[in-house]
Design goal:
Helix content: 40-55%
Largest sheet: 3 strands, mixed
Strand content: 5-15%
Number of helices: 6
Order of helices and strands: HEHEHEHHH
Distance between the termini: 24 Å
Strand order of the largest sheet: 1-2-3
Number of strands: 3
Structural class: mainly alpha
Shape: globular
Radius of gyration: 16 Å
Amino acid sequence: MQRVGALRQTESSSHPTDSTVESLSVAEQLGRPVAKAWNAIGSASFARKAKPEGALDRIAIPVAADRPRDREITMALVKETGLDAFDAGSLADSWRQQPGAPAYCTDLTQAEIGVALDAANRGRLPKRRDLGVAVMQERLGDGTTNPDEDWGVRLIRVINM
């Protein structure tokens, strides 16, 4: 089990984003602990890119939860889906795995995902998210374009990494 290394002090969880508030709000509304996983992988990658444990190109996804035991259980479930799990810390830090962040839908490996989570910049997330959506809408909105399933992953990598 790996964990995010050095979270930037200037981007601490004292300044919640909409996604952080959303994740914490879900836990509060349910009155139960919440673990956040599988939000940072696209449906095509999730459906088609599972690999056996130990494969060098196996996709890793971040897992966030406030209680260590909840992260451990969720990480075990992630591994059962053919993905590597990466301990991304608490729900308050889960903004690092939201749209506009380098770890979001970029199909990174276990060796790459920690660096991407650490590189997340809270102030850039909305602008990068909106840029990605605008490009996707333009490309897919004409009714004639049908890019391959990895097109979105490549686009998001270019924008966020």
